[in-house]
Specification:
This protein is mainly alpha-helical. The protein is built from 9 helices and no strands. About 20% of the residues are buried.
């Protein structure tokens, strides 16, 4: 029988390849371990990208120092948020007693009204109180963590704004090649434009949904149309979950003012708005502002929601933008710019 192979084939792996693979695995695990910090920094980067054009305009047109301009921008941002909450919260709280009265809840049992309990009933109440206390404590801790994260994002984004002109120079930690420094500068500039476009798209989406909700509720003569529309607009920042949460106060007000018939009409209204948002408004706005195709927007948001829930859905489009930018600049750095498309058009 004829032999087709006269020698053995062997595969050799260099030590440098093994070391690289080990460090890659360690690095991926490390980033997974600090994923919350990475998400916080990513949000700060998005805030920086959104505010940087306004800061440059203030410095160029008004000749305002950078640090003072940052303070002015954040004061305006916080003022807008506080004013919006001031319009939203008081009307909703004023409707809660009317809603409770309209539900015709049964009166409290006589033993609870008169504080006349048996030992077993008292023990049950204590256990329920402990469970409620634990829930309240969890809510307070979650609120504290949210406030702390918000303040961290504000501080990080402020430092990023202060150091914006030198961010690309951080590549010199790894390479002092002028070509790499120039490439890093182009990358940071392009990333700011892309992420800033995403923020502009989100603001336009919030404005569109808010106006649509306000006009619809006004036509239906639902009380507090403006604060309800503002609440709907703000909650648009939470994909999928936001429209559902925004419908709850609107349904409460509709029920207390018009009964079940008005509640049903408002429910249908929010379902229609949600379908328009998911299938028409969001894809088209994302296409116009960050050049991401409608199909890709839907797929990316669904993937982000599957992987990371609400936060994953919120971060899905900007994460896709960053990955797309890294790929485009990697192609450019490797001399394949002719075969690749422009950064703003890659993988759309």
């Amino acid at each position: 029988m004829r032999k087709f192979f006269n020698h053995e084939h062997s595969v050799s792996i260099s030590p440098s390849t093994i070391v690289f693979a080990v460090f890659l695995v360690i690095g991926l695990y490390f980033f997974y371990y600090i994923r919350e910090i990475v998400v916080t920094f990513f949000m700060a980067l998005i805030v920086m990208s959104a505010l940087s054009p306004s800061l440059r305009w203030m410095r160029r047109k008004l000749h305002i120092p950078k640090s003072i301009g940052i303070v002015i921008l954040y004061l305006l941002l916080i003022s807008i948020i506080v004013a919006a909450f001031g319009l939203i919260v008081p009307p909703l709280f004023s409707e809660v007693p009317n809603l409770i009265n309209s539900l015709h809840l049964p009166p409290l049992p006589p033993n609870i009204r008169n504080f006349n309990f048996t030992i077993v009933e008292a023990n049950q109440l204590i256990n329920q109180f402990q469970s409620s206390f634990g829930t309240i404590f969890d809510i307070l801790m979650s609120t504290f963590n949210s406030i702390f994260t918000f303040l961290t994002i504000i501080v990080l984004s402020a430092y990023l704004l202060l150091d914006r002109d030198n961010l690309h120079k951080r590549v010199m930690w790894f390479s002092r090649d002028p070509k790499h420094v120039a490439l890093a500068k182009d990358f940071v500039d392009s990333l700011e434009v892309q992420l800033g476009g995403w923020v502009s798209g989100q603001l336009l989406l919030m404005l569109t949904i808010g106006i649509l909700t306000f006009v619809s509720l006004t036509i239906l003569k639902v009380p507090y149309a403006l604060p309800l529309a503002l609440a709907t607009s703000f909650l648009e920042i939470l994909p999928n979950l936001g429209p559902t949460l925004s419908a709850i106060p609107a349904l409460m007000v509709a029920y207390s003012s018009g009964g079940w018939s008005m509640t049903g009409v408002v429910l249908v209204l929010f379902l229609v708005i949600q379908q328009l948002e998911n299938n028409i408004i969001v894809p088209r706005i994302m296409k116009a502002n960050v050049d991401v195709s409608p199909l890709m927007t839907i797929l990316v948001i669904l993937t982000g929601f599957k992987i990371g829930g609400v936060i994953g859905a919120l971060m899905s489009v900007p994460t896709y933008i960053v990955i797309r930018m890294i790929y485009a600049f990697w192609m450019r750095d490797n001399g394949e710019e002719d075969q690749s498309v422009k950064v703003s058009e890659t993988l759309t």
